[in-house]
Design brief:
By secondary structure, the chain is α+β, with helices and mostly antiparallel strands. It contains eleven helices and nine strands. Helix 3 packs antiparallel against helix 5. It binds protoporphyrin IX containing FE (HEM). Its cofactor is heme b.
Length: about 400
């Protein structure tokens, strides 16, 4: 099974025993034995929703919905119940409850995860303003933002990930059909990561700039991992116990400009070596970065504006987040530039102690800023996992 074979997932997470929240079970016994990839299975029920601490999947769909006029709390509760039933079945490798399309027939669950979140607008439309967490207050404007509002925000957000493109599409289609007359798609984004098994050994994934991306992520074995990523069981509001906040940013990479830089110049931008992710202060990928180390001329080996120096938790009052992205490529623009980059998704117990302070710092300009452009944004409250017999969000909606 992939999840147990891989020790260092692309998020830099150690999977299996160390990740208490990561529940993988044996694939259901079927007539046809599945490959290791197909039989990978994440659990729908648990303390946390799936799709947060698991290793990166090869395919992803992010889709936001708006409740239609007239749909309120009752319709939303029925929708979350339908979505939860569908997610549970598909994640077990079973067909959708109604009118299955056969698209995932023959395939195993392929590590499918389906994750549900609520956006700021959801609470007004369902009469639940009092339950809206303060942490869902809109993100501040950043001076470098170039946001397309029609591809930002949304009342409801669904993240789908799987190691097989057809399994992921199958889930997307089932989720969209379940929305019925209650909610309409606001935007959708499609992403990908390296396929499991493509490298000789499990390693941190590369992004479309070619860098190892995920090295500095908090690890499930860190003593403060849960505290950083998840709302505590005693947290406020009570329905968000064991939940997390997802910040989603569609970040275009200006690849034509980036690729003109020499490898040395690219390494100065990040502060890490491109080939193996090691800090420019020396060592291997996981060697702690030495921020004080300088060359004979007295210049810091990790430049002052290097992305990996500026984003460090110890430079941001301890602000930390779990980055779990997908890359995207949506074709070539009329001017010949690729519409490609990162569907940046980061998870934290509180965006004001995660994404916001770090992005404020980056917005003042790090060495990476000239090569990227934030084009869409969302912030979603992702409740804790559903217990057996419960649907996701039930503690808010019942
Ligand atoms: C680290 C790339 C945007 C937060 C890194 C690293 C790379 C990278 C290569 C070093 C390896 C690693 O630790 O993962 C990118 C690219 C981006 C981007 C290509 C945009 C396309 C952002 C944004 C944020 C962010 C928007 C948050 C506001 C971080 C953090 C670290 C990091 C927290 C780890 C710092 C540490 O723990 O030492 N990024 N990044 N990045 N980045 Fe980014």
């Amino acid at each position: 099974r992939r999840a147990l074979l891989g020790t260092a997932g692309a998020t830099g997470l150690v999977l299996g025993a160390a990740g208490g929240a990561v529940g993988y079970a044996a694939a259901p016994a079927g007539a046809t034995p599945l490959t290791a990839l197909g039989s990978g299975r994440a659990m729908f029920h648990g303390k946390h929703q799936p799709g947060i601490t698991e290793g990166l999947q090869a395919r992803g769909h992010l889709v936001a919905f708006d409740l239609v006029a007239g749909a309120g709390r009752k319709e939303a509760a029925a929708l979350l119940r339908r979505w939860s039933t569908t997610a549970e079945r598909l994640m077990a490798g079973e067909p959708a409850p109604h009118d299955d399309t056969d698209v995932a027939r023959d395939a195993g669950p392929s590590s499918l995860t389906v994750t549900f979140g609520f956006g700021h607008g959801f609470f007004g439309k369902t009469g639940l303003e009092k339950q809206r967490p303060a942490a869902l207050d809109p993100l501040p404007d950043f001076s470098s933002d170039r946001l397309d509002k029609s591809r930002s925000d949304g009342d409801l957000w669904v993240q789908i990930g799987a190691d097989d493109a057809l399994v992921a599409f199958h889930a997307l289609r089932a989720i969209q059909k379940d929305a019925g007359s209650a909610a309409r798609v606001r935007w959708q984004m499609n992403g990908f990561n390296r396929s499991p098994g493509a490298t000789a050994h499990p390693m941190t994934a590369r992004n479309l700039m070619g860098q190892l991306d995920g090295t500095g992520n908090p690890k499930p074995s860190d003593a403060d991992f849960e505290k950083r990523v998840f709302v505590p069981a005693s947290g406020e509001p009570a329905w968000m116990a064991n939940g997390s906040y997802a910040v989603v940013r569609r970040i275009r990479m200006l690849l034509d400009d980036w690729e003109k830089l020499s490898t040395t110049a690219q390494e100065q931008v990040i502060g890490r070596r491109k080939a193996d992710g090691a800090p420019l202060s020396g060592g291997a990928e996981t060697t702690p970065m030495d921020l004080e180390k300088a060359d004979a001329k007295g210049d810091y080996l990790v430049p002052l504006n290097a992305h990996a120096r500026i984003t460090r938790p110890d430079r941001n009052g301890g602000a930390a987040m779990l980055r779990r992205p997908f890359s995207y490529h949506d074709g070539i623009d009329a001017d010949g530039t690729p519409d490609a980059g990162l569907l940046f998704i980061c998870w934290q117990a509180d965006p004001l102690r995660g994404f916001v302070p770090v992005q404020r710092k980056l917005d003042r300009g790090d060495a990476l800023s000239p090569f990227i452009r934030h084009e869409a944004s969302g912030l979603f409250a992702v409740p804790g996992g559903a217990a057996k017999g419960e649907y996701v969000g039930q503690r808010l909606l019942e």
